[in-house]
Amino acid sequence: MKNEPPGNPNAPRAAPPRKAFRASRAMRLVLPLLSFLLSFLILLATPARAADQEFSCSAVAAAPPGYVVPAQALLRDPTGLLSVDEVAAPARAADFVAFSGQLSAGYTRDALWLRLCLPPAEAGARPRWLRIAPPMLDKLALYLPRGDGYAEHRTGDHRPFVEREWDYRLFAISVPPDTDASRPAYLRIETTSALNMRIDLWSEGAFQQLVVLESMFYGVLVGTVVLLVAFSLVSWRWLGETLYLFYAVNVLAGGFFLLMNAGFGSQFLYPESGVMNDRFIAWFTGPILAIHVLFFTYLFAVRRHLPRMYPMMLALAAVYALLAPASFLTDWRNIGVLLQLLAFPVTLLWMLLVVYLGWKDRERRIYIFAFLPWLLGLFANAMLRLGNISENFLIYYSGEITALIHLIILPVLIIHRTRQAELEKERALARELVEAHRVERELEARVRSRTEELQQEIAARGRLQEQLRNALETERATLANQRQFVAMLSHEFRTPLAIIDTAAQRLDMRLEKTQPELTPRIGKIRRAVQRLLNLLENCLASERLNGPGLELRLEDVDLRAYLAGDYAESALAGAQRIRLELPGEAVQVRCDRHLFDIALSNLVDNALKYSPDDRPVHIRLRPEASAGVPPGMVAIEVRDQGAGIRPEDRERVFERFFRSEGQPRTSGAGLGLHLAQVLARRHGGDLVLAPAAPGEGATFILTLPTAGAQASAEELQPA
Question: In this model, does residue 375 exceed pLDDT 60?
């Protein structure tokens, strides 16, 4: 406790100083003011809600030519119904997903909105050009901020090429210099192709230079492809190797596919159509990939080195080829996803096969350097299209780079192989020349030797010809003597044979009633006599036909009257077995009656001989108008009911002296059918054996020209 000062405790205290009072009052006034200012600053520092704040682009410096526009954010529209006003509304700002680099979204069915910030244009600059790749994007709509709204620019693969703002393979949209750079631009995308976009901004002058450079590059590429195809076709025709033909087809297909994917199809093939590019890519992608697979299989000799892998390569080519008709049945996005999924294992398999087969086959080892970069480019491009890797220059231009590698290395290989083939051809020609000289010397020696042999042979042939001439003279004399002998023998035999036949006939008539058991024996005598007479007639006819200067003694004969008179039941022995089928009118022919009688007698006797005794023989006369008879001809059918002719004997039945082994007990010389056919052909007709089943007998058809046809033929013959 403090000590109080001395003095009166009841005395009043002294008042505080005036300065202290003023300080206390100021503090009471400042503290509330500071609290208010602090609260206001805290309120200002608190961020506003995204739904209440409109997105604005930060300051971007002027861009150099070819500046890649960064896509600030992405919004997916599954319904595809959002408008630009709805997308640009502050309420949608939080729905955008920020990303860096270029857009790689693979295949999608959503409509996509990109929010872009464009750099400001320089003062007094001309319109800039926004380039959008790839050229297979179906529908594009760019909304540039203008005033309080947005100016719409539509393009895309589904719009005709003639409607584009710039005559260019990719999509180019003009950006006016007064475009508000503080507000974002929006790009709406709808496509069935893989989303692997590249967006860049160019000044007009730089863009013109870019178009010229690209035109020069692709012009050189097309010219190189054409030269390679022509060179390969010429090499194929010259060397005859199928590899050059396959290479020409592969280069042509690959070049066409590269140009189509670069956007030249819409520019040059169908500029007024908005849907043909999708159809062309859908139709040709699968078959061109199949061509690549088949070329790879043939080039690396997969069938020889890996026979089990060969059917798999053919099946893969078939799958690729079937993608063309499959594009009519399903959305291209489904096929594209299938292609990209196949790209990973197929490309990896190809890379392993290239290394393995190239290293195994020394001749194809250099092909590794041509195919590995191309396969790596395909692999990277597939990953890029599915959004698995980010884009860079090498990946974006992998198709052009690998095509350039192919165009550099493979022609060198072809030229090297052509040179090797030419050297081998020259060496082969040198060997052939040496061999030709050796063969020429041997040939000259053989010619000299052969000349001497020919001279000796000519002398020997002269002697042989003289001997042959003498032999022919002797043979002619012998044949003349033989014909005279046969004629004399026939004349001498006829008289006793006629006497024997007459005596046998009288004896048969006398003993028919008294001793009927002798009748069969007498019949045998008469048949034997008849066979001898027929044999004599055939021999005389054969000698007459084979003799020189045979002339037919033609006369008009009515075949109907002839058959009725000579083959009726009372005309000859055994005639009771003959059944005649004759027409109602006369049938006139012009023939040698004696020779015709011999021919027909041989047919009838042959039928009676080979038919059972209780079976009839049918003779049918068919006039010219009958069915199956050729015009100007008549036919005589002789049909028996015997065992028929064996199939193996049908071709030889008309041969001279042929006897079938199936009829060993039947007598005969094998001359009758041959002589009958020769006689029929001498008259301008023929004798044929009709088809018949085994066991149904034999039917012979003898044809002769009618009297009118024979007379016409005689008039046409030269005098």
Answer: yes
Q: Is pTM beyond 0.90 here?
A: no
Q: For 577-599, b where at least 16 C-beta lie within 10 A, e where not — what string?
A: bbebebeeeebbbbbbeebbbbb
The SS3 assignment for 709 reads: helix
Write out the E strands in 156-208.
Answer: 171-175, 185-190, 195-196, 198-202
pLDDT higher for 582 or 99? 582
Nearest to 175 by CA among 139, 213, 138, 132: 132
Q: Hunting for tokens 């002789």 — which residue is that?
A: 638
Least-confidence region, from 446-455, 464-473, 688-697: 688-697
Inform me whether the pLDDT recorded for 716 exceeds 80.
no
Per residue in 32-82, pLDDT tens?
433 433 343 333 333 333 334 567 787 666 667 677 676 678 999 999 899
User: Which pair of structure tokens corresponds to residue 266?
Assistant: 């819409």
Segment (H or E) for 564: helix 559-566
Across 37-96, the runs of DSSP E, i.e. the strands, are 67-68, 71-77
| Fold for the domain defined by 67-207 | Immunoglobulin-like (2.60.40)
Look at residue 155 and tell me whether its pLDDT is greater than 90. Answer: yes
Answer whether CATH 3.40.50.2000 is correct for domain 551-716. Answer: no
- pLDDT per residue as tens digits for the range 157-170: 889 999 999 899 99
Cβ contact 295:249 at 8 Å: yes
Contact 702, 638 (CB under 8 A): yes
Q: Which residues contact 583 (CB under 8 A, 6 or more apart)?
A: 560, 621, 622, 623
From residue 470, how far is each of 308, 339, 482 by CA, in Å? 77, 92, 18
- Check: CB of residue 114 under 8 Å from CB of residue 152: no
Amino acid at 41: L
* Residue of 53, 62, 107 whose CA lies nearest to 339: 107
CA angle 596, 598, 603 (to 5 degrees): 95
186: Cα within 13 Å, side-chain hemisphere = 27
Residue 505 to residue 522: CA distance in whole angstroms: 8
**Closest by Cα among 589, 501, 567, 299 to 417:** 299
Q: Residue 668: what residue type?
A: G
**Tens digit of each residue's pLDDT (9 = 90 or more) over 541-581:** 665 566 555 577 888 888 888 888 877 653 444 556 788 88
Q: Using alpha carbons, select from 281, 237, 240, 247 the residue that is nearest to residue 263.
A: 281
Decide if 382 contacts 343 (C-beta within 8 A). yes
**Could you give the CA distance from residue 279 to residue 326 in angstroms, rounded to a whole number?**
12
Per-residue model confidence (pLDDT) at position 498: 66
pLDDT of residue 8: 37
Listed in sequence order, the residues at least 6 apart from 73 whose beta carbon sits closer than 8 Å to its beta carbon are 96, 97, 98, 99, 114, 115
Where are the alpha helices (H) located in 611-696, listed in sequence order? 672-682
List of residues 6+ apart from 592 with CB closer than 8 A? 552, 553, 554, 555, 683
DSSP 8-state class, residue 633: E
